[in-house]
Amino acid sequence: MEVLIQQYPWLDELLMGFFGLSWKHVVMWAVGALLIYLAVKHDYEPSLLLPIGFGAVLANIPHSSAVSTVPGEEGFLIVLYNAGIANELFPVLIFVAIGAMCDFTPLIRRPSVMLFAAAAQFGIFATAIGATLVGFSFEHAASIGIIGAADGPTTIYVASRFAQELLGPLSVAAYSYMSLVPVIQPPVIKALTTESERKIKMGFEGEEPVSQTTKFLFPIMITVIAGIVAPISVALIGSLMFGNLLKESGVVDNLSNAAQNELANLITLVLGITIGGTMSAERFLTFEVFLIMALGAVAFVFDTAGGVLFAKLLNMFSSTKINPMIGACGISAFPMSGRVIAKMALKEDPTNFIIQHAIGVNVAGQVASVVAGGLVLALIPALAK
Amino acid sequence: MESAFSKAVTLMTVALPTMFAVIGVFIVATKALHAAFPAPIEAEDDEEEYEDEE
What we know:
The structure holds two protein chains of two kinds. Chain A is 73% helix and 0% strand. Chain A is mostly helical. Chain A has one domain. In chain A, helix 6 runs parallel beside helix 16 and helix 9 packs antiparallel against helix 10. Chain B is mostly helical. Chain B has one domain. Chain B is 89% helix and 0% strand. The interface between A and B is large, with 49 and 34 residues.
């Protein structure tokens, strides 16, 4: 073959794809195909897993021009990575879109639900500790823990600062487990609650309607408070609340609609395929990635347990009992977690409608996960010194 | 590894209570905001009717 290539140098150019192919590339095609299959066949976060899956295929074709790093000939996935992930632009823009989609009314009606959301961030910190025990550095462990925020953009934001080389697996773990909430949460909740606890009904006493002025001022107030506590979180919480302000102002419906639709769709599209582009075989087929996927599941389990156990703790001191299952909605996987828990309550007792409470806690989870992300962002550099 | 472990424990012991404190401030501020700008009952009813029509 070498003689042939020496005689016909153009053969090398034509056949370099075959010569560069290894079993690792084929395994990564299978990983990409699996993500596409889960998206198409099982509807698991399809708008993200499908582009991620295809991006993984593009990144694992030998000498792929899509991920070329040759100066002056950078592949489009590298250009997108530098334009939107290395500088944290895409996650921030996604937050604007999420903010425009959020309705914080249930949270404003009953602000105490934010406590459940805070408790449900326990998985972040427990997983970070666990990750250090299996050998990860502190920065990487904290970034792995953030999977427990159950919030893809926060995971990407933190990883792009402190664990760039783990960005692909961290994102895949975050989005995969978010889509697996209906599988992960119910057994954990059942293990931690009794049947009578799951049947507790919750009323709506003392909950007054929310004025438009309150809804409008709420995002500004949260941004200022969170910003003062952790200035580093302003980009995250500020973009989330900016999107919400567009919606609640009522005067820029065109911008609000653009954020909810065009912006959300466009950024999701480029974000997904760019993350997929980081999943090269050399980075992905490692024992570290296997550990990250396992730790991601641990994070979701601890989040759920944290929320449920906190609700049970409150029940010990409160005369008005809370259905402890709503504590599990404090994770940020919105609205899936709220729906899953509401369904569980209906399954236990067909007359028990806790959907409004569950969604309220779930919306609070959006805010709490960003606050947790902000605190982790602020503390990693301080503690890593 | 021990150092990373102790940093992660410190992260938890600092961040978790801080988060509850921040959330506590959010709760108090949200309650104050809600109380300062109460919604006229009729307006809410109208809104619900409008949503029902949709």
